[in-house]
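Reminder: ligand-aware prediction takes two inputs, not one.
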Amino acid sequence: MKRIVYFLGLASALVALLLAGVLNVRAGGSAVAPAPNGLEIPEGYRDWRIIAPSHRTDNNTLRVIVGNEKAVSAAREGRTNPWPDGAILGKIVWKDATHEAWPAATVPGSFVHAEFMVKDHTRYRDTGGWGFARWVGPEQKPYGQGPEFVQECFGCHLPVKNSDYVFTRPAVIP
Ligand code: HEC
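Here is what comes back for the chain with heme C:
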């Protein structure tokens, strides 16, 4: 009898685990919470193509600027002022690290954040046609206390108003 009870307990625990797995996959399997302005982390951004790399000496970070299909085609065809609706630019940031076998080489260290600009000239009219969002750290915690965090992003992108609020110039890839 003891054995049966033990077996039943084990079996129901297994069923519960399986169900949890199935439900998680149904929900997209993404545990990343949306940004305070409702933007979801773009699906598949880890596989996006590169528009340009960049390096900042004021905070010692390496970055790659990537884009979804619409953004990369626009970048390669020079349609970037304005960028087309539906284009999403992503920026992935790592702390500078030094390669142990070649100290002059700066390589990606710990992950800092991933952030995005989503172009929709009607929806995001108040912030230059761009929806902004950032997810911080390996745990991908949404940045900002409330939806007004976008003013900080937009404010700092104002100096490049004449290039549709985008700093990055697509790197030449012959
Ligand atoms: C202190 C100034 C500053 C703030 C605040 C800021 N950015 Fe930027 N952002 C930059 C600069 C400078 C670049 C270009 C250089 C680089 O790659 O970092 C940039 C680049 C980007 C890019 C790549 C496209 C481009 O414009 O070159 C994205 C995407 C981006 N930022 C998103 C955001 C988001 C989202 C926020 C707010 C959560 C934000 N930024 C806040 C200064 C800022």
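The first strand starts at residue 49 and ends at 56. The chain has two domains: 1-31, 45-163. We will return to this case in the review session.
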